[in-house]
Write a structure and sequence with these properties.
- By secondary structure, the protein is mainly alpha-helical.
- It has one domain.
- Helices cover 73% and strands 0% of the residues.
- The chain contains five helices and no strands.
- The longest helix has 23 residues.
Length: 106
């Protein structure tokens, strides 16, 4: 039972240099969902497989930018705002990569 509780309390603090609080992780997930919706509409491919791939790429972009660049690029006092801004930058790069990958289907 302790194993299931530890899985429920998991946070990606090993990925990022600072530990995420639950509000930061929720805002990153919501922003990734919205970004995946936008890319899915722009690419005009409305399958659940493509949406899930878009969501995972957006989430990976958010987490990677948060892990590597937010420490030295974003020196903000509020950790919530810093993670939201870092998520926007990461999603922008990931969104352009996805649209470049979908360039033959648009």
């Amino acid at each position: 039972m302790d194993g299931f509780i530890s899985l429920a309390n998991w946070s990606p603090s090993g990925i990022a240099s600072g530990s995420f609080i639950s509000a930061n992780l929720i805002i990153i997930l919501v922003m990734s969902f919205i970004g995946a919706s936008i890319v899915t509409r722009l690419a005009k491919i409305n399958t659940s497989f493509n949406f899930s791939i878009n969501f995972l790429v957006m989430l990976a972009g958010c987490l990677m930018f948060n892990a590597y660049a937010s420490e030295f690029l974003l020196q903000l006092e509020n950790e919530f705002i810093a993670s939201a801004v870092a998520a926007n930058f990461g999603m922008t790069v990931a969104g352009f990569a996805l649209l470049f990958g979908y360039r033959n289907t648009i």
